[in-house]
């Protein structure tokens, strides 16, 4: 029995707006991502932009899944060996740091969820390659989305691409269905086998958000109840889009003027990248 919701036309309209707004926070903050800024300052700037300019609600603030303490900030800032859920604070960004900013906004009850990598100053060749391969992993996964395809098809291409590059896929966290609820069914695993798991149907909306480690896949949970790091202290990268299954393929909902273009090898039609 499937409990994956099929969105209505009204839901899809709301999700397009929320998705664009989330991506626009990432555009807004890009010029500030420089040596010397603290993660707390990045959070404050994004939080003010969401509330005062967009009229959106930061979904992470006070978010409290079962077994967790309430998340204390508006965004997630995951630096270097932090895989995900890094809490903004006093950390000063220095030359060569790599950081993922993960933004989830709520607008008219609908959630838009997207994240990007930023390089502070001059990144190492290692860090740039990890960021690029992870970006390709996300888009390869997205490119599999169409009615009749299986959720396992997404994880398979992501895992293949990551492991071929000598990297590993984090298994403890995954993509997720999203709508008026932040995290709902289905889970989108970033590893797996083609033809397995649920069949995709037009009207489903979920995120694709691979976390790829330069070293081993094992994780370490920090004492703050949220921050997740690589066990071997290797670098980790993540990119995230929220995507709608359409009648013919997919539509990326977290689009904005400043979003990086898909990799060259991804064949997209105008319809598949929402013109906003
Ligand atoms: N935005 C994250 C995701 O992609 C979730 C963050 S939960 C938080 O699913 F509470 F840490 F914000
Ligand atoms: Co997400
Ligand atoms: Co996210």
Automatic annotation (TrEMBL):
InterPro entries: Creatinase/aminopeptidase-like (IPR036005), Pept_M24 (IPR000994), Pept_M24_MAP (IPR001714), Pept_M24A_MAP1 (IPR002467). It comes from the Bacteria. Pfam families: Peptidase_M24. Residues 14-247 form the Peptidase M24 domain. Gene3D superfamilies: Creatinase/methionine aminopeptidase superfamily. It comes from Actimicrobium antarcticum. Monomer. Removes the N-terminal methionine from nascent proteins. The N-terminal methionine is often cleaved when the second residue in the primary sequence is small and uncharged (Met-Ala-, Cys, Gly, Pro, Ser, Thr, or Val). Requires deformylation of the N(alpha)-formylated initiator methionine before it can be hydrolyzed. The keyword Cell membrane does not apply. This is Methionine aminopeptidase. Belongs to the peptidase M24A family. Methionine aminopeptidase type 1 subfamily. Keywords: Aminopeptidase, Hydrolase, Metal-binding, Protease. Substrate binds at residues 85, 183.
């Amino acid at each position: 029995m499937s409990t994956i919701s099929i969105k209505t036309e009204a839901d899809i309209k709301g999700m397009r707006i929320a998705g664009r707004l989330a991506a626009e926070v990432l555009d807004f903050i890009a010029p500030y991502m420089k040596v010397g800024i603290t993660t707390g300052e990045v959070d404050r700037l994004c939080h003010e932009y969401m509330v005062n300019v967009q009229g959106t609600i930061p979904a992470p603030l006070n978010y409290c899944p079962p077994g967790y303490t309430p998340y204390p900030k508006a965004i997630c800032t995951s630096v270097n060996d932090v895989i995900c859920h890094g809490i903004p604070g006093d950390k000063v960004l220095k030359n060569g740091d790599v950081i993922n900013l993960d933004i989830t906004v709520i607008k008219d009850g609908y959630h838009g969820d997207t994240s990007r990598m930023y390089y502070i100053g001059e990144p190492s060749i290692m860090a740039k390659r990890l960021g690029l391969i992870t970006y390709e992993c996300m888009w390869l996964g997205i490119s599999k989305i169409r009615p009749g395809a299986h959720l396992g098809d997404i994880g398979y291409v992501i895992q293949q691409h990551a492991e071929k590059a000598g990297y590993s896929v984090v298994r403890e966290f995954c993509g997720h269905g999203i709508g008026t609820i932040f995290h709902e069914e289905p889970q989108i695993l970033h590893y797996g086998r083609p033809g397995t798991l649920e069949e995709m149907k037009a009207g489903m909306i979920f995120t694709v958000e691979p976390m790829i480690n330069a070293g081993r896949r094992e994780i370490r949970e920090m004492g703050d109840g949220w921050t997740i790091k690589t066990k071997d202290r290797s670098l980790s990268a993540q990119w995230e889009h929220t995507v709608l299954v359409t009648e013919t393929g997919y539509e990326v909902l977290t689009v904005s003027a400043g979003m990086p273009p898909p990799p060259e090898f991804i064949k997209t039609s105008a319809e598949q990248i929402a013109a906003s």
